[in-house]
């Protein structure tokens, strides 16, 4: 981005040099050519400025998104919900704790908030419930139907 800024300044210097040279030009053809060259330099500088303004806007949006995610992730803590099964659970007394839920640990680590959804019984030979992430398809099975917010379950950290 700095190199684009320097290039923009260089174009303005070129435009200034061209304009300065116009005062000594008597020939209308040479003057008109110089005016056209000056207009092209100004247009190029304006286009570069517009590109830089758009890039700054994109970066400001990304910074705002990252700050919001930092605030959001402070409401959760990684916990083991079953042996070998990790999920992010809401911390006690946070806005997130109002509704019992588990967040996918894989997606959470990638900066995404994806809920672990109960997808039903894991099969006739196994007891418990299967939870699956809609985003990355990670799943785990809980013993005896463990679910978010269940009494004795570490719903709150």
Number of domains: 2
Helix content: 40-55%
Q: Unreliable runs, pLDDT <50, ≥5 residues? A: none
Report the C-alpha radius of gyration, rounded: 30 Å
Instruction: Provide the residue-averaged pLDDT.
Output: 81
Number of helices: 3
Spatial gap, N to C terminus? 44 Å
Large-scale geometry: rod-shaped
Tell me about the largest β-sheet. Answer: 3 strands, antiparallel
Strand content: 15-25%
Instruction: Label the structural class.
Output: alpha+beta
| Cross-sheet strand order for the largest sheet | 1-2-3
Q: State the total count of DSSP E strands.
A: 6
Description of the structure:
- This protein has 157 residues and is an alpha+beta fold.
- The chain folds into 2 domains: 2-72; 74-145, no CATH class.
- It contains 3 helices and 6 strands; from the N terminus they run ααβββαβββ.
- The strands form 2 sheets. Strands 1-2-3 form a 3-stranded antiparallel β-sheet. It has a 3-stranded antiparallel β-sheet with strand order 4-5-6, with no helix packed on it.
- A hairpin with a 5-residue loop joins strand 5 (129-133) and strand 6 (139-142).
- Helix 1 (2-22) packs antiparallel against helix 2 (28-73).
- The longest helix has 46 residues, at 28-73.
